[in-house]
Write a structure and sequence with these properties.
By secondary structure, the protein is an alpha/beta fold. The protein is about 35% helix and about 15% strand. Strands 6-14-13-12-9-7-8 form a seven-stranded mixed beta sheet, with helices on both faces. The chain binds pyridoxal-5'-phosphate. The site of pyridoxal-5'-phosphate has 14 residues, from helix 4.
Length: about 450
């Protein structure tokens, strides 16, 4: 019996589904993949099989696995006492780096995870405005936060007469009353957004969005849409929140807010900023952030927030991202991988396309028109789950790890800073064979 099977059989006796986290169940494998180790761009499973990693720790391993500079930073924390629940000069150094790098970061507060930090962002928006309603967008994901966890996993709510989408919670256990203060709108649909703001005038605390929704492929904002949302939020006194948990660091210097040239009032970061160590950050305009304790009476704190080890690794991540040629490497890999995949799909007559920005991408099997990527519903209409499944099974077989949580919308994949052009070439050669097989 394989070691993988052995671990799975035993793990099921203690864990639901054989995994300590639901998201680690790989629906293509119909079990979790148990690992032995990971290094650079590779993960090694319990049976010793190596994969080029296109999951990259749900995006947290953007700097690859076991990066020597991050190891060094973690060791420094070990030498300092590793956990004190105190501030150090390094906390201040990290906040300064955020301030220099992210346009909205006049003030910074740390947290542990993307989920926690988006919860805090919503709390801050409500405290600052004294209002309750939050507008969010269909398909967007903001963590396991039932305050805003609706309509992500392929569910399509009915639209009402002003174009608002019915809230469908992504998890059981959400109190119905939470839904009363959440309005859902289609992304890039300016008319519905304007009507929604008008209908709830004077009651809206915040607008929460993923500037590029990588959580169901790669659904970018149209620049004009985002600019108009910014304009309306400023006019109406609504706090604009960018959830940059995925886009943060991965796309461009300054992340999505710099890419679009639209500065939100608040932005949340996690995943890549810690290089695999748990840290998140709420960044925002001074005036809005001043509702936080100890100045204000909005609480955002915790035993592990700003723990020393992630603070030190995050400093290294930020420094690496600020090096002048950092994004040249990302862009070169991205162009070769996405351009190569699109050419191969064409060569083998596979319907669909790949869209990526920076180090994250979605594969839209069945979606022929790339313009549909701006429209979650339209892309969903022609998206082919069956092709994705066949592709993922073959990729795993051939040593390419593409994670699948079993959602109905395109999953998102990514590479790391430690991926090389050789990794991409190996990958494209494998895809050539896989696409040919898929056509047979
Ligand atoms: N926000 C976005 C955009 C995310 O993609 C995620 C996780 O995938 C989260 C928030 C939640 O982050 P975490 O898993 O660190 O709680």
């Amino acid at each position: 019996m394989s070691k993988l099977q052995e671990i799975y059989d035993e793990a099921r006796q203690y864990f639901i589904g054989g995994a300590s986290a639901g998201g680690r169940f790989n629906s293509t494998l119909q079990q979790p993949l148990y690992l032995k180790s990971a290094s650079g761009s590779r993960i090694i499973d319990a049976d010793g099989k190596a994969y080029i990693d296109y999951h990259t720790g749900s995006g947290a391993a953007f700097f690859g696995h076991n990066h020597p500079r991050l190891r060094e930073a973690a060791e420094k924390a070990m030498d300092m006492g590793f956990f004190m629940n105190f501030e150090t000069e390094y906390h201040k150094e990290l906040a300064k780096l955020f301030h220099e790098f992210f346009p909205c970061a006049e003030r910074v507060r740390f947290s542990n995870s993307g989920t926690e930090v988006t919860m805090a962002a919503v709390r801050v928006a409500r405290a600052y405005t004294g209002k309750d309603i939050v507008i969010r967008f269909e398909g967007h994901f903001h963590g396991m936060n039932e305050l805003v966890w609706y309509n992500h996993n392929g569910a399509r709510g009915k639209k009402n007469d002003i174009g608002e989408v019915e809230n469908i919670s992504d998890t059981a256990g959400t109190p119905q009353c939470f839904s009363e203060v959440i309005r859902n709108v289609e992304y890039n649909d300016l008319e519905s957004f304007e009507r929604c703001v008008e209908a709830h005038k004077g009651q809206i605390a915040g607008v929460l969005l993923e500037p590029v929704s990588f959580n169901c492929g790669c659904y970018p904002a149209q620049k004009a849409f985002l600019e108009k949302v910014r304009e309306i939020c400023s006019r109406e006194g609504i706090v604009l929140i960018f959830d940059e948990v995925i886009t943060g660091l991965r796309m461009r210097p300054g992340s999505a807010q710099a890419y679009y040239g639209v500065t939100p009032d608040l932005a949340t970061f996690a995943k890549a900023i810690g290089g695999g160590f748990p840290i998140a950050a709420l960044c925002g305009k001074k005036e809005v952030m001043e509702v936080l304790n100890p100045l204000g009476r909005t609480i955002m704190s915790g035993t592990y927030t700003g723990a020393l080890m992630p603070v030190l690794t995050s400093i290294e991540c930020m420094k690496m991202a600020m090096e002048p040629d950092f994004y040249d490497h990302i862009d070169a890999l991205a162009d070769t991988l996405y351009g190569g995949m699109n050419a191969l799909m064409k060569k083998h007559g596979i319907p669909g396309h790949v869209r990526g920005i920076g180090a994250r991408f979605g594969i839209y099997f069945g979606v022929e028109n790339p313009e549909d990527d701006y429209n979650w519903r339209k892309a969903g209409d022609s998206y082919r789950c069956d092709m994705t499944k066949s592709f993922l099974i073959k990729s795993l077989r051939d040593g390419l790890y593409m994670h699948d949580c079993g959602q109905a919308a395109p999953a998102h994949y990514g590479f790391s800073v430690q991926h090389t052009m050789e990794d991409i070439e190996i990958t494209l050669n494998k895809f050539d064979k896989i696409f040919k097989e898929m056509k047979e």
